[in-house]
What does this fold into?
Amino acid sequence: MRHIRIAIIGTGAVGSTIAYTLVLKNSATEIVLIDTDTERCQGEVMDLVDVMGFSRTTKIYQGTYADAKKADIIIISAGKPQKIGESRSALLEANKAIMKSILSELRGLNVEALLMVVTNPLDSLTYYVQQWCELPRAQVFGTGTFLDSQRLKHLISSFAGVAVQSVEAFVLGEHGDSQIVAWSATRIAGGPVENHGITVEMKQELARVVKAEAYEIIKTKGATFYGIAACVAQLCDMIIYDSKQVVPVSWYHERYNVCMSLPVIVGKSGVEKVLPYSLSDEEVQGLELSAALLRKRLL
It folds into this structure.
C-alpha cells in the first residue's frame, strides 16, 4: 500500500472513534489529529498510540492545519454535537460558522486530496463546504445516508434471517427526517423483499425505525459514533483501494440544486459517477420533497 496520510479535524467522540477504527483497519500509514481543544487532542493521540502495536499504521500525531493541507484524505468531524431531542437541522448556523473557519485554514491544500464531511446537518454543510473549498466537487462529499442504509440493511436481514451482505437497500435524500427508503430497488438475495414477508406496513415501520435510531441512541448514551466511524473508515478504504463500490453519499446534484444522497460510485478520485436508479412515483415525490426541504434551509 502506498503511503497514505489521513487528517481528522475534530477529535470529539466521533473523530476519535474514526481514528481508532482507521488504526484497527490498517487504513492509513499516517494519521494526524487536529482540534481546537489541544489538550483533549493530545490525550486522544496518547491513547491511540497504544494501539499501534496491533496495526500497520506507523505514525499518529497531533498536528495543525498545515499538516492537514498535505493529507490525502481530510475528514471533518468538528462541530456542535446533537443534543437529546434536537434535530440535525437545528445545528446549522453554529456548525456552518465552524466549517467556514476550518475551510479558511485549508487554503492551499493538496490539490489531489479528498475531503469528507461528517458533521451535521450533513447535507447542508456538505453544500457549503463544496462552495468554499478549492477542490473540485468530485473530491468533496459527505457521509450522507450511508449509515442510514446500513441500519436498514441490518433490520431487513434480521427479519428475513439472512446475512446483511445478502441485502441491497438504499436510504436516499437527506441524512435526516425527510429521508426516503428506495423500496422499489430493495432486494434480498436478488429478489423482492415481499418474497420474505415484508408487507407495506412493515416497510413503513422499518423506515420509521431507521429514521429514529440516531435519536434513540443519543437519548440513551448521548451520541452516535461507532456506526458512523465504521462508515467513514469504509469510505476511506474505497478511496485508497479504488474499489468503486456503489454507496449513497451526500454530493451536489444539479437536478435538485442541493447536496443529498443518491447511489454513486466512490473510488480514488472521490465521487466518480452518479448511477441511474429506478424509483416508484411515490418515492420520486418523497425525494423531491426531501430536496425541497434541503433547498429551503440554504436560503
